[in-house]
Amino acid sequence: MKTIVINSSNYVVGSNNQFTIAFPGNGVKFNAGDKIAVAGIAVYNSTFNITAARGNNKISVIWNAATPTTYTFTFPDGYYSATDMNAFIQQQCILNNLYMTTNNGSTYVYFVEITTNAVRYAISLNVYPIPTTAQATSLGYSIPSGATWTAPATAQCPQIIINSAFGTLVGQSAGTYPASIQSSATQTISSVTPIISPVDSYILCCNLINSKLTIPVDVLYSLPISVSLGQLINVSPSQFLFNDIDPNTYSNITISFYDQLFNKLQMNDKDVVITLAIMYASESK
Q: Rounded to whole angstroms, how far apart are CA atoms 60 and 73?
């Protein structure tokens, strides 16, 4: 067998998911019966779950104060848990003065919340009523300095608007939650299982393969994500899973990364080591 090592120096700039290594001279001719396998791979889990490319990076909040106003919050690309989403929403509420304070301004009171509901294996979209002036006074709440809104005539909850892409993360269809203005705290629990991690496997494809059994035709290896974001996935198969090389002359080997649905992977860390084993037909006899 012959061994080929591909690493970050072989990254195809601008591709986000491809690594290529050139054969010397006029290339290499492969014949029927020649095979290729992954002998080892080390790659970091660096795939974000919220990105502009996925279209799941925005939510809107209808702030039902005296004059209802809609605010749109745009998440920077990143990997967010429900807790992280909630922290970002609270940050946006602070930036837009969409909160109240109590205890002489030392405690912030928020009216929009995303939380994990572990018992239900779900995510909850929670909203709480913005109090009237009289209610705020009774509670010791104050509207922050610089706010452009005034308290509603009757207590009203904000509403959260999500699209279908963000809805996949939190287990909801596209829509407004709650659908109508509510005067008391409202919790909306996932109607389907949330997919907080859209990518659960890396699939490697190789330009040397042209299989009649798979779509796409160039699948080489499947790598399940078994570590958290930022940690190293390190696999050394005890047995090689050889794939037939399509007989032809090749100038390079190109490895492309996709997710489990064969969407092009956005790899934020290009530090990889892929060890390939090539076995010629004459060596397998």
A: 6
Domains of the chain: 2-47+199-283 (2.60.120.1100), 58-189 (no CATH)
Q: Residue 244: in which H helix or E strand, if any?
A: strand 243-244
Residues forming a β-bridge with 250? 28
> CA-to-CA distance for 158 and 163, rounded, in angstroms?
17
pLDDT, tens digit (0-9, with 9 covering 90-100), for 195-253: 999 999 999 999 999 998 888 999 999 999 989 999 999 999 989 999 999 999 999 99
Q: The pTM is what? A: 0.85
Lookup result for tokens 């029927």: 32
Measuring CA to CA, which residue among 272, 206, 270 is closest to residue 243? 206
Residue 11 is classified by DSSP as B
Q: Are 43 and 202 in contact (CB under 8 A)?
A: yes
What is d(CA 205, CA 259) in angstroms, rounded to the nearest whole number? 11
